[in-house]
Amino acid sequence: MSNSLSVRNFFSIPVAQQFIESAPSSRATEQFLRFHLLPDTTALLPIQQLTEVLTIPKAQIVPIFQMPSWVMGAYNWRGEVLWMVDLGHLVGLTPWHQQANITSAHTAIVLQAPTKESTATNPKHEMLGLVVNRVEDIEWCNPDWIQSPPSSTVTPELVPFLRGYWLKSNGEMLVVIDGKAIMLSMPKQ
């Protein structure tokens, strides 16, 4: 069984209250989940595109043959099949099976996107598990501050999923990924 952490309940009540009080006052800011991909990429995904953060024992992801190499397999999530994707491998970084970290579990972000059949009165979502090195924090960012990166700074595999980058005031560059673009690129059964 996995340990699950709802993105909306990422913090305990007292910390959440402090977090809300310290959030930027501008209505133009959005929340992003900050996570890390090996070897050295810190990335963001919009919170509204996410459902949960999971810790999944490695043995519970069932490999499926004849899939792209970045598809790790399927996982039984809430009684449904959740396809698990090695996000680092998908975007041209170090695949999880080549990483030196020795852990017994994967950290996964559950990405959601509305289906074509979704309506305002009957919302339907597709789900996808994105395996990442680690989840770090929640960041507030004004979408107007997201810029196009120089083409030499990103892998060609990342470009289709890239919304841009955010350069923080401390000089740290965070890659902003578009979850909808990832969902659209997935093979259809």
Automatic annotation (TrEMBL):
Residue ranges of domain CheW-like in the record: 29-188
GO CC annotation, single: cytosol
Record Pfam families: CheW
InterPro entries reported in the protein's UniProt record: CheW, CheW-like_dom_sf, CheW-lke_dom
Database matches in Gene3D superfamilies: CheA-289, Domain 4
Taxonomy, superkingdom: Bacteria
GO process annotations (BP): chemotaxis; signal transduction
PROSITE patterns in the cross-refs: CHEW
PANTHER family, per the entry: CHEMOTAXIS PROTEIN CHEW, CHEMOTAXIS SENSOR HISTIDINE KINASE-RELATED
Protein name per UniProt: Chemotaxis signal transduction protein
